[in-house]
């Protein structure tokens, strides 16, 4: 940020588009950034009307309201990511499913026209995320190679084999929660939701218990990268790389029964395995994608059950399975707000918008899962007939490889939490959202027995 608290703008700017209509090439506009408001103003100096883009704010007190603001502009809405980066927010369910499954949409930032044309500031905080060599930003043969390298770690059989360890962790955390609740309300996020996936993933990676708090802190800061200054973002990237490089060196010297050792044994870049950079980025992807998002889904679904006691009674009474609860929880209140970016590889139309090849599309999972055009928005675990397809784990070739592990943890954690404490109740409103445009979950959720 500069001394006035403003984010650095991109060097050049796309022509602003109207918030709820196509761009008018007859009306040149100058885009101004105002960090005190939640919109990007496009002031028309040719006598026309003022047009707007929706400015995405990682510190908004209400992400759901921000998503609805986008939805009012249609299933594909003009938006701006912090740092002056123009994009299209895909908030419609059908439109997002198309982007996820249609081969005309790519994930590699090499397709991003604004980046190729030098319109993105070199110190834009999200650039390090987009330039990592991981599955999120790979296409075609590269994506298949990276995915194949880790697929064996997440087979249904191997994941189910983690059930005893996950159950033991859950019971130990519930013991601690019960003891802490004797003294008053307990933050379910801090005491239960965060430690569970942290311990599961760190055990999978062979990370010693003493190093796990540092890993948790790095993941939390990374998911809030949109709220960091360029200097803070660069420092965070260096810390992440150092932490993971130390872990890889440790496993190279002393192999163990863990995912890092398995990936090291998978070969080098020359024989189809992972390069050193790819290995580090892959490990970071699993930590980032598997930790905070699973914790957020646990908090969000627990909150939904507590404010919808009829649905909780259905689950506790066996009238609906906990698997269905997990799916409905992810649909109703996705812990993944959005992911940047996908890019059309040709000019095309989506959701009534004429898109150009190389436009940046923001994948708005939370908004798409609550698209009223697709089905009922209300939280209902025992829906009759076909259930709305939730997109929280993605679709198509980039479907989340860790989804079986996340579902297993959520099923066990939710069932045991409410079976053990059927009288659990909220002790106050949820805390403000974590400052992120990727994660969507409250910073705290206090409960009482």
How would you characterize this protein structure?
- The chain is an alpha+beta fold.
- The protein has a single domain (29-448), classed as Cytochrome P450 (Cytochrome p450).
- It is 43% helix and 11% strand.
- It has helices at 63-71, 93-101, 113-116, 127-130, 140-151, 156-160, 163-181, 188-193, 195-205, 212-223, 230-253, 259-265, 276-290, 292-307, 309-316, 322-332, 365-369, 403-420; strands at 29-32, 39-44, 51-55, 76-81, 85-90, 105-106, 186-187, 339-344, 348-350, 353-355, 361-363, 425-426, 446-448.
- The strands form three sheets. An eight-stranded mixed sheet has the order 1-2-3-4-5-11-8-6. Strands 7-13-12 form a three-stranded antiparallel sheet. Strands 9-10 form a two-stranded antiparallel ribbon.
- Strand 1 and strand 2 (39-44) form a beta hairpin.
- The radius of gyration is 22 Å and the shape is globular.
- The model is unreliable at 1-51 (pLDDT under 50).
Note the main attributes of this structure:
449 residues, alpha+beta, Cytochrome p450, three-stranded antiparallel β-sheet, iron ion binding
Oligomer: single chain
DSSP helix count?
Answer: 18
Report the span from N to C terminus. Answer: 44 Å
What can be said about the biggest beta sheet?
A: 8 strands, mixed
Under CATH, the topology can be stated as: Cytochrome p450
Low-confidence stretches: 1-51
Q: Give the structural class.
A: alpha+beta
Spatial order of the strands forming the largest sheet: 1-2-3-4-5-11-8-6
Q: How large a portion of the residues is in β-strands, by DSSP E? A: 5-15%
What is the CATH first-level class name?
A: Mainly Alpha
Keywords: Heme, Iron, Metal-binding, Monooxygenase, Oxidoreductase
Family: Belongs to the cytochrome P450 family.
Organism: Streptomyces ficellus
GO molecular function: heme binding; iron ion binding; monooxygenase activity; oxidoreductase activity, acting on paired donors, with incorporation or reduction of molecular oxygen
């Amino acid at each position: 940020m500069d001394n006035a608290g403003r984010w650095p703008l991109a060097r050049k700017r796309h022509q602003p588009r109207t918030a709820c209509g196509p761009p008018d090439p007859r009306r040149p506009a100058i885009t101004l950034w105002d960090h005190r408001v939640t919109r990007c103003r496009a002031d028309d100096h040719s006598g026309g009307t003022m047009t707007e883009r929706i400015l995405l704010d990682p510190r908004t007190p209400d992400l759901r309201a921000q998503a609805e603001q986008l939805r009012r502009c249609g299933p594909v809405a003009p938006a701006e990511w912090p740092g002056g980066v123009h994009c299209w927010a895909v908030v419609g369910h059908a439109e997002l499913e198309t982007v996820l499954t249609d081969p005309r949409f790519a994930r590699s930032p090499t397709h991003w026209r604004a980046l190729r044309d030098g319109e993105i500031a070199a110190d834009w905080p999200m650039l390090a995320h987009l330039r990592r060599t991981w599955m999120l930003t790979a296409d075609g043969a590269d994506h298949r190679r990276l995915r194949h390298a880790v697929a064996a770690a997440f087979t249904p059989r191997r994941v189910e084999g983690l059930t005893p360890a996950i159950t033991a962790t859950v019971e130990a955390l519930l013991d601690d929660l019960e003891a802490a609740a004797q003294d008053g309300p307990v933050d379910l996020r801090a005491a239960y939701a965060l430690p569970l996936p942290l311990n599961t993933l760190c055990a999978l990676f062979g990370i010693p218990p003493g190093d796990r708090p540092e890993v948790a802190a790095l993941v939390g800061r990374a998911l809030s990268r949109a709220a960091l200054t360029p200097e803070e973002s660069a420092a965070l990237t260096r810390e992440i790389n150092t932490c993971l490089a130390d872990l890889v060196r440790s496993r190279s010297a002393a192999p163990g029964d863990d995912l890092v050792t398995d990936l090291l044994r998978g070969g080098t870049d020359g024989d189809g395995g992972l390069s050193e950079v790819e290995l580090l980025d892959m490990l970071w992807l699993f930590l980032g994608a598997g930790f905070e998002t699973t914790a957020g889904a646990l908090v969000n679904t627990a909150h939904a059950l507590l404010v919808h006691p009829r649905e909780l009674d259905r689950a506790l009474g066996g009238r609906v399975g906990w698997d269905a609860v997990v799916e409905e929880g992810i649909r109703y209140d996705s812990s993944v707000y959005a992911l940047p970016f996908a890019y059309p590889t040709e000019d095309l139309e989506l959701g009534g918008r004429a898109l150009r090849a190389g436009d940046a599309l923001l994948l708005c999972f939370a908004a798409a899962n609550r698209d009223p055009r697709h089905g009922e928005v209300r939280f209902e675990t025992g829906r009759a007939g076909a259930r709305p397809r939730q997109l929280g784990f993605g679709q198509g070739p980039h479907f989340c490889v860790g989804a079986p592990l996340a579902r297993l943890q959520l099923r066990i954690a939710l069932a045991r939490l409410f079976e053990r404490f059927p009288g659990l109740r909220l002790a106050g409103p949820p805390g403000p959202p974590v400052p992120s445009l990727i994660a969507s979950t409250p910073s705290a959720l206090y409960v009482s027995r």
